[in-house]
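Q: I have 338 residues here and want to know how they pack in 3D. Can you give me a structure?
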Amino acid sequence: MSNRVKLISLAVVCLLAVAGSVSYLLNSRSNQQRAAQAAAPVAQIGLSTVLAEPRIIFRSTAPSDHYGSVAAVALSDPAGPRAFIDTQCDRVYAANQRLLCLSSDRGLVTTYAAKVLAVNGLGSLLNVALAGVPSRARLSRDGQLAATTSFTQGDSYAATSFSTRTVIDRVGGPSLGSLEDFKLIHQGKSIKPVDRNYWGVTFAADDNTFYATVEWANHTWLVRGDLATRTVVTLHEDAECPSLSPDGSQVVYKQRGTLPKGSWRLVSYDLATGTVTPLAETHSLDDQVEWLDNQHVIYGLPRSGNAAAISDVWSVPVDGTGAPTLLIPQAWSPAVVH
């Protein structure tokens, strides 16, 4: 085969691939539009009304024109009418009067970004590129610090091999950089494993202390970090995606234990005593929970089968008692703002 014929063949293959991609996107969009048209209307309320009181911010997964948009409900009526913010996010978090939005721009070349906005979705305060697929997002309580985790290889924590990049930025100030550049202290010694990965930051109230997950050699650890000294210290093994309680006394994280790869169980960990308590939620959960109050956490669970694109936010006590209860239907990535 001549070089000219090879080039023509290659061009045809490329054109077919592009045509296939365009066809897939058009069909996917058409399916979403049909689902939105067939769905019951979403009850709505004015944004200013919701923002005037304690609230829960989340990503709406209701089949409608607002699918993927940031939404808000009153903390006193979480299953009630929702207000929509004109911002589309893959992952969202909120604190004080700010939103942290992780998003994907799916063109011929997909790009990823993180931005911090005012609570109404206006006025960009921080805009940075992400290294890969958005995964975890957290703001400090006062909204001054933003932590983002993205996948730079693979697309989930269940993958056989994956790599993450976790960065902490000071909103309106210099970036504090990747956690991979922090000093890692394990059992009293400074170590630097080449395969280390960090994810799932959660901030303490002092804007200096944080907790996160580090993994190396196929083992995960809960770490406590110090921004001033740029160090992280391992505390407890088998811990992923921690979330610190409002009073700073415990974290809830997902634990693998004896479960197969890609499955986890929620547990609480008392920072003072080291006591680990399994929560009543028995579904495998790949999420970083949010605290509703000092006694309950909330989290997103996707539905099954053809409804997998829809998720719901559930609540469960952290002391291991009770049972999960549905808090916000058709929602994902919740953040409680008092």
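Q: Anything worth noting?
A: The two ends are 69 Å apart (CA to CA). The first strand starts at residue 55 and ends at 60.
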